[in-house]
Amino acid sequence: MTTSVTAAPSPPVAPVTAGGIMRHLNVVTGIVMGVLLATATWWVTSSTFPVLDEGDHKDDAVTILTLVAWVIGFLIGVGAFVGPARWLLGRDLTVEDEHYLAGKDAGVARYFRFTTDHKVVGMQYLVTTMVLFGFGGTLAMLIRTNLITPGSRFVDPATYNSLVGIHGITMIIATIIMVSGPFGNFILPIMIGARDMAFPRLNALSFWLLFAAVPVLISSLFLGGISTGWSAYAPLSDQANRGMDAFLVTIVTFAISTGVAGMNITTTAVRMRARGMTWSRTPIFVFGTVASVALGLVAFPMFEVAMIELGMDRGMGAGFYDPSIGGSGWLYANLFWLMGHPEVYVILLPAIVALMEITPVFTRKPLFSFTSAILGIMGIAGLSLFVWAHHMYVAGWAPVLGGPFMVTTELISIPTGLLFLVLLGTLWRGRVWMRLPVMAVYALLWNFTIGGITGIYLSDIPVDQAMHGSMFVTAHFHYTLMGAGLTGAMGALAYWFPKMTGRMLHEKAGAIGFWVAQVGFNVTFMGMFAVGLAGQPRRVADPGTYFRVGNLISSIGAYTIMLGMLTFLGAIIYSWRAGSVASASPWGARTLEWQTPTPVPLENFEVLPVVTQDFYGYGEDGHRAAAGAPAPGTPGGPGAPPPQGPDAPPQRVEVGAP
Amino acid sequence: MKSLVGIGATVLAGGIALGLTGVAVSRAQSDPSTVTAVVKGTAQTPQGTVPHAFLELQTWPDSMAGPHGKDGGPHPDWVSYGPGTHLVLPAHSLVTLTIQQYDSGEEITNHYFAKVLGTVDGTETVDGKVVSEVDPTAIGHTFTLHGLAQDGQDELFVNAPLPAIPDGAKNLANGYPEPHVVTFSFLTKGPGEYVFNCEFPCGDGTYAKFGGPMSTRGYMSGTVTVTS
Amino acid sequence: MSTGRHEGQRLDTRTTWRRPPVLPILVIWAVLTVLLLLFAPVPARLMGRPASPTMQEIETTVTWFTGLSAPVAALVWAILLYSVFRWRHRGPQPPPEDGSGRRDNRRVFTIWVLGSAVLCLFLLVWGLVVIAPRTSEANPAQEPILVDVTGQQWAWSFTYPDEGNKSATELYLPVGQTVAFRVTSKDVIHSFWLVQLGIKVDANPGETTVATVRPTQIGTFQLRCAELCGLYHSYMQTTVHVVSVADYEAWAQSPAEAHS
């Protein structure tokens, strides 16, 4: 599966001692160390912690500490702290050590250890994202199976609630990382002409934190499930079983991971752009991804705090959310939504800007109104911090604030409209080379229109009284996060697949899978809009006979999505193993990542590029002839002189010694 | 051709994986034991002469005596209904339910559920005495039956409070104190699916005492099927 | 929307609006708009017959929003459709020539921003005007009937302080009179949702929230819990009986009713 990404061999063979102890650490030692530390912690805590008279906190405290110990143990075992430790001991890493860490000449093994190369991290994120989607999708199918008929006892209500909760959090994690993880790590540094991320070790740390969080999330299945839904509203989450402890450890770990990743991506984009790449020459994907991760830097700590407080409630009876001892569920709701609303844009922005990167390439036109794109991204990122309480219109928390929050919420439609303008303006009169990546633009514009308009209903306070907490809301946010977000990510994958794997994504199978999933998606969630309008609440195990038809339609649609997604996955797996070999620049795109050979060499560029103009100059004087994109099958080949090669499109990107 | 096989295999594998997961998840849930009401003769009611069915349940202070096995199952210290929590009742019948209540208790959070609701005459008998409500400060559990409003199914609502055994009551040979015997009758209507649960917060140690046994199927909650 | 002339295209003397692609797109846009306008009443129909002025208002808003967003959605989709069918380049290679190098169009940008700002302003005014009378509904001329609503894991109960603290597990309301619900919870957060009456407010432990409504239809309606509250959340619902004033009085006088 990964043979095509082996690093190019380069002469000076590192001494065998390079890497020191890191030579012996990998994911297996991580797991062993994690399990050992967790077991030890469990043994110590459960035999020393007192059982309090009031409350059942010991079990929760033991569970939380055990899971935290797993995470720390795993990171120790995988070697995450070797660098800092050696620095503290005054034996900082040598250049050879750094090369070893970056996975030089390491083959497939580098994917299973603490490797700092951003391309390796990107691939690790990509596979993890797909695994998470598979897991969350399976749970979605079980949910829809239970709802095929009213009164179905396929799963009992407790299991159903857990399916809903674990599906929710799995998909939230997967969608947050789906673009900025794989493409933000693999593509973004090359796109800006950097040799790696600003902090390569933090980069690896962000991935392995995520990796450590996944078993914790799955462990919740065996600890009674997450029976509160992913929003984990308190005080229900104070009451829930030990699955909740796993949930909160997952969230805290993941929040640290995104924090580390966000810092890293932001610093990289701000400080490491190639010479001459002024902000106005920086590709829009960089802007959107940075806006997204920077927004995450503000948003996720809220959730982290909410979860730490929940852990204190559960483990020590602190009572942050327990009204009987002075706490308040509204405290949780505010913290949660302070994260929750920016978070949807954390998910959406990278997916949309990925498509903004794609559209000019396939229409052979410049990106329409770069200014609008910037304004839209900044407007959304800014406003999204001030809309959270529209999730609490009916909570009773602050009815007088309803008006102001309605204003901020509806104002977001203006910057969102600008993003539509950019995509439509780029499509306008463009001869669209209808390949898989650009198909996602059409699907996104269709879905996001529906998702956006239904959002307007929900922003209106009186209408929200009828729709809040109903399946209408569920359908709405699936239209934005899945219909727009995931669709964009699928387009991005199809677009960058040749660069990342060295092979072309099987176009026909991919397109069939993609469109089957899109049709199924619209069927599913149209049905869900209908039952929501008719009055079906969210998260009900047994909605009753009133909603029989709509639920049946949704379930049929869901099976169609499954069929489409599996076909798409099949296309990915097949193409990764045996697809036709891709040239360095199969789409004739101008951004820097296509000017370097495939597979990308360890340090991306032999000589760092110098940028003299932006990357959207299609159809401008002297460049009327489109880039001669070679047919798939012409290998770029390792070692080919990157930018001046016969495959590279004519361009004004000057390359030379800085 | 090769691609077709590869992609087909992925779809097939995915489908099989989902099917297996579905079966595993569906099987993994312990099915609560079923208790079926036994019809013995008929009864005169305002609705005419209907079959008279009888059913007996217990509320235990732990899980050693209920349906959870000799060792008390995964949570031996959880309160539990017994002998089962899936009740099967005949439609259009008078159902007389007798509950032996072995557990202690205290004040119920909502005094309204200390009243007898939805039974014949709005009463129940506690140890032979006819009452329409019990002391809200000494409730052990309640038997509260309700369902979904949906078309094609009659509504059914019954609430029978079960008084608490005083703290320090002497245990008998079986390790439990002398129970309160609570008997009440209600009329079932057409067939349908309902649920019952306890409205007295008895999931000790969790917030609002409604976690643990209160929130796990097979302990203090169950399902009711009214069959034609 | 129209962009400037495509460079290098042969000169077309017709005005912008009548030149392709503008004219065909306008036609598709008009057709789609009409179709969407025909669809506009559907959501309100799905929401059922309104049983209160509040719900009536909600359904009107939904219909208007659908109608107003029809031309917007139609514009996006018209361009998409035209693009798919007329601007598509087939084949394994990109088109031999790049498209127009035009990067911006100030006129389009201005129209777009102004248009979305006007629509947004309309939404704001609409929303703020509609919620304004709602807040004053809290003290109407007629003293509202008070109902204390208690949510607890997985049951609703109601107490009528005006009727000698009569309690019930089904909600009885007189038609045509304003009712004020004081909603609270015994344990976790629930949400008190009178589906056909169009009101919803969370039941929070330790807090009391208020919602008012004036039912105008006699009939049987649903009260559902709209916030996940644990194991039997989906069963946490009960029936709302909106009855004539006489029937309501009779019910209020009756002793604690036997639910059968």
TrEMBL record, chain B:
Q: What is this protein called?
A: Uncharacterized protein
* Species of provenance: Intrasporangium chromatireducens Q5-1
Q: Cite the source lineage.
A: Bacteria, Bacillati, Actinomycetota, Actinomycetes, Micrococcales
Domain of life, per UniProt, equals Bacteria
TrEMBL record, chain C:
Q: What function does the entry list?
A: Subunits I and II form the functional core of the enzyme complex. Electrons originating in cytochrome c are transferred via heme a and Cu(A) to the binuclear center formed by heme a3 and Cu(B).
Molecular function terms from GO = copper ion binding; cytochrome-c oxidase activity; oxidoreductase activity
Provide a GO CC annotation, any one. membrane
Question: Membrane spanning segments where?
Answer: 21-42, 62-87, 108-132
Look up and give the membrane topology term. Multi-pass membrane protein
Reactions accelerated catalytically:
4 Fe(II)-[cytochrome c] + O2 + 8 H(+)(in) = 4 Fe(III)-[cytochrome c] + 2 H2O + 4 H(+)(out)
Is Transmembrane helix there in the keyword field? yes
Q: Which organism is it from?
A: Intrasporangium chromatireducens Q5-1
Family classification = Belongs to the cytochrome c oxidase subunit 2 family.
Question: In its keyword annotation, does this UniProt entry include Metal-binding?
Answer: yes
* Chief location of this protein within or outside the cell: membrane
One GO term under biological process is: ATP synthesis coupled electron transport
The subcellular localization recorded is: Membrane
EC number(s) per entry = 7.1.1.9
Entry-linked InterPro entries: CcO_II (IPR045187), CcO_II-like_C (IPR002429), Copper_CuA (IPR001505), Cupredoxin (IPR008972), Cyt_c_oxidase_su2 (IPR014222), Cyt_c_oxidase_su2_TM_sf (IPR036257)
Q: Which residues form the Cytochrome oxidase subunit II copper A binding domain?
A: 142-254
Q: Supply the Pfam families for this chain.
A: COX2
Protein's name in the database: cytochrome-c oxidase
Write the record's keywords in alphabetical order, separated by commas: Copper, Electron transport, Membrane, Metal-binding, Respiratory chain, Translocase, Transmembrane, Transmembrane helix, Transport
